[in-house]
Amino acid sequence: MGTSNWQNISYNIKLIRKINPQSVLDVGIGFGRWGILMREFLEIWDDSNYKGEWKRTIDGVEIFPGYIKDYHRYFYSNIYLEDALSFLKRCETKYDLINFGDVIEHFEKTDGEKLIQLALEKGKYVLITIPIGKHWTQKATKENPYEEHKSIWYNNDFTKYKHHHIKSFHDNTLRDFSVVLLSNNKLKFVKRYGRFFTIKNILKHKLGLRKIIENYEQRKRAR
Question: Looking at the domain assignment, is residue 3 inside a domain?
Answer without folding.
Answer: no
